[in-house]
Write a structure and sequence with these properties.
Blueprint (H helix, E strand, L loop, with lengths): L6 H13 L15 H10 L8 E6 L4 H7 L5 E6 L7 H8 L8 E2 L4 H16 L3 H16 L7
Parallel strand pairs: 1-2, 2-3
Ligand C2R binds next to strand 1.
Length: 151
Amino acid sequence: MGSTSDWETMSRAADMLETLSIAHETRVVSAHRTPDRLVAYAREAESRGIRVIVAGAGGAAHLPGMVAAMTHLPVLGVPVRSRSLSGLDSLLSIVQMPAGVPVGTLAIGEAGAANAALMAASILALTDEALRERLVAWRQAQTDKVPDSPQ
Ligand SMILES: Nc1c(C(=O)O)ncn1[C@@H]1O[C@H](COP(=O)(O)O)[C@@H](O)[C@H]1O
């Protein structure tokens, strides 16, 4: 994430990864404030064994796109809700990538963060049968919790 202030949102992704027993790390990396850290993180991620990167940022959210420019790993972007423009700025900054450098962009805020983790799980489950089973079970539990009437 671009700032510690994003953690309230991005912790939803970490919680979901925890729930699905997916190994993960959390880092604060900013294209604007820590550009050298960004370059090192993006360039070294694949060789460190990372398989999917979830990048959350708000406002002028260049982080996901810059990471995607420097790695061949899948990058999932989460637009964090901003104070001034409620995250519309974050969304547009992340989603409007030029052709050739994709960022899989999720919804603004907590739902987007949780869904980024679920999307990462789906990607990883393609080559991990045990994870696929945990993901299917989680989805089924979600379905089972939905009442068929409001009262
Ligand atoms: N969008 C970016 C980037 C980046 O894109 O690299 N780095 C920080 N930020 C964002 O600035 C917002 C305000 O940050 P502060 O709360 O630290 O002032 C955060 O949502 C962060 O993601």
